[in-house]
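Fill in residues.
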């Protein structure tokens, strides 16, 4: 599998999300995703991509793309992530370690800033096509994106 870093334009996503503060907890992240999906399904909304973001230090956001009209309630926020320029890499976690990908992407972005291809690097997000906890064996496909300003 080839792992390549690219600058591209990410589409806009209409998401239902929940935020929280605290230490990293895989179980808590999974529970929050399940809560958002259950909320969307109970309102008859079609779901799409799963998006995990870290908007600040020890702050987390689990979001699911929703298709249809909805209003947020009780800890669920509906909003639109605008289409934007991102540095992106797609990889399979069974083949390549996420730590290697994050390290390589951050170094690649540092060099893009030095050669003035980009001006600044913003927040990161992980985008999954489906529930990553559903797969019992093997890895899954994930796209890591960093918002960049050209």
């Amino acid at each position: 599998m080839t792992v390549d870093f690219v600058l591209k334009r990410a589409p806009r996503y209409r998401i239902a999300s929940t935020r929280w503060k605290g230490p990293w907890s895989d179980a808590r992240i999974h529970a929050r995703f399940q809560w958002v999906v259950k909320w969307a399904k109970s309102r008859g909304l079609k779901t799409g991509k799963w998006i995990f973001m870290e908007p600040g230090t020890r702050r987390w956001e689990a979001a699911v793309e929703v298709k249809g009209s909805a209003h947020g309630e009780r800890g669920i926020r509906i909003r639109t992530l605008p289409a934007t320029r991102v540095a992106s890499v797609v990889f399979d976690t069974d083949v390549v370690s996420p730590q290697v990908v994050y390290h390589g992407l951050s170094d690649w972005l540092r060099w893009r800033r030095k050669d003035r291809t980009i001006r600044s690097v913003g927040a990161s997000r992980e985008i999954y096509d489906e529930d990553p906890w559903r797969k019992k064996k093997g890895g899954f496909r994930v796209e890591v994106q960093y918002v960049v300003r050209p």
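The first helix runs from residue 26 to 42.
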